[in-house]
Amino acid sequence: MDVDFFFKLRTDFTRKFYDEAVRPFLQKQKLIEAEEEPYVPPYSEDGEPPFLEEWTEADTSIQIIGRTAISLLSESLKVYFIQWEKLLGIQRSKFFEDEFKKKGYWSGYRRCFAAALAIDWTKCPADLEIIEQIASPKSKPARWKNYPVIDMSSEKLKRTVSQTDLCKRPREKSGRR
Q1: Within 10 Å of residue 144's Cβ, how many Cβ atoms?
Q2: Is 176 among the domain residues?
Q3: Measured between alpha carbons, how far is 170 from 81 in angstroms, rounded to an integer?
Q4: Most buried pick, 3, 109, 174, 176, via CB within 10 A?
Q5: Residue 137's closest CA among 85, 91, 92, 101?
Q6: What domain range includes position 89?
Q7: Is residue 173 part of a domain?
Q8: 162 — phi, psi (to 5°)?
Q9: What is the mean pLDDT of residues 92-121?
Q10: 164 in a domain, yes or no?
Q11: CB–CB of 119/113 below 8 Å?
């Protein structure tokens, strides 16, 4: 199996999804900022920026689409590592399973691949900080709190995370997952 081909296919889809999905919201913001139809501000002396609610809704939509794209990227990255694990015949030992459970799949695979393949991650040309942000459990929709900012158009992903984000959510005690 060509793992890289399918990973690139999924990431290209995610990029196209993001670009297409945010387009109408960016256009709305552009029209508001340029004071073009239908967002020509009426006369007002209240000091409140005109169309603030519309601009804010568009911005929130862009942020939610960004989080969805990050979640798609996270799952693609996880599938990528799982496929390499299978192709290389690497078995996760009990030691690494603990790493996976406590720190997530990115940390687990880093440790696992470093041990099995003698990978020195400090020499990796990729920006591992971005990969860590993408793979973070906080990139999952169920854990979004206060809509942390993610700008997929920038060279680096920038996040502001609330204090609530940093705390683990307690498991539900019902029989459901």
Answers
A1: 20
A2: no
A3: 27
A4: 109
A5: 101
A6: 3-40+51-141
A7: no
A8: -70, 165
A9: 88
A10: no
A11: yes
Measured between alpha carbons, how far is 107 from 135 in angstroms, rounded to an integer?
A: 9
Name the residue with higher pLDDT: 115 or 176. 115
Predicted confidence (pLDDT) at residue 22 exceeds the cutoff of 50: yes
Give the mean model confidence (pLDDT) for residues 39-65: 92
Cα 29 from Cα 41, distance rounded (Å) = 13
Q: Does residue 9 register a pLDDT over 60?
A: yes
Token code pair at residue 107: 């940390």
* Residue position matching structure tokens 């940093």: 166
pLDDT above 70 for 169: no
Token digits for 93? Answer: 């030992």
**Domain-located, residue 108:** yes
Q: Residue 127: what pLDDT?
A: 93
pLDDT over 50 at 101, yes or no: yes
CB atoms within 10 A of CB 167: 9
The domain total for the chain is 1
Both tokens assigned to 12: 């290209």
